[in-house]
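PT: before anyone asks, these are the final sequences, not the draft ones from last week. 323 residues across everything. Please model them as a single complex and drop the result in this thread when it's through.
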Amino acid sequence: MDYKYIEQLLERYWNCETSVEEEQILRSFFHQKEIPAHLLRYKSLFVYQDAEKEVKLGDDFDRRILAEIERPVVKAKRLTLHSRFMPLFKAAAVMALLFTIGGVVKHSMGSGKADVVYVYDQFEDRTNDPQVAYEADSVKAPMKVTVKSQIEEK
Amino acid sequence: MRKISFRNDILPLKDKLFRLALRITFDRAEAEDIVQDTMIRVWNKRDEWEELDSIEAYCLTVARNLAIDRSQKSEAQNLSLTPETQEMPDALTPDRKFEQSEQLKIVHKLISELPEKQRTIIQLRDIEGKSYKEIADVLQITEEQVKINLFRARQRIKMKYNEIESYGL
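LR: through. Structure below.
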């Protein structure tokens, strides 16, 4: 096999006259298994050039750098007025729903409790009755006791 | 001009930046730190992205400057590069699996012994496959200077190869 072309390329490589593509040809040439003895000594140089391309950062680097960088993005750009008030809207919607349900429940219960309300009204009405003033009252009872005892002491 | 997105245009450069930083600092942890710093700096300059010719060249420039800064700071702790220390078994070589091959270790040592500028140019040209113009953009020098430095680097590698070949190791 004729290695004139490769030798020529190599010579031009040392003189920095090769193009990027020609240097790639050299790298691929030295990657193959069968290389003539007089060129073999340069094999490691070109294999090294290829191998060095595989040096890479760890996988978690992206995550770390994005964590470092995207924090300000979220704060500065993504937050619109709409999304800012979203929790409030949600809270308002939940409240509205609760009031609606409450209203419906109260309404349906209210019609069933008509009698009770009537009785309650009676009690209310009795406050206007002068007779109530003479009746025993749970709140006033202790007062009465103390007043009585004071009078008895005298 | 196309809109530049951090996730799609800048984050994928991380490995290139890492390799460049590693070539300059010889230290994986340090290089990783530099890439992170570079990303954050580039991110903070996001208003200027549209005005740049090439975001990749810009990122590489930032990474290189950071790497040089850091290696200069730690330079004081290093031994000076005298002929004796150059012959020392290199503790510089990072532990990487492909370098188990003795041959590749030698190449790595050869390139590591080059001055920073030549090393960076070799990295960008022979490993990342960049054109002279792109390299000139990254290093902010002329294409002519890139060629001269590359020429010196390659001649030195060739010379070392011939030395190894004729005297053995």
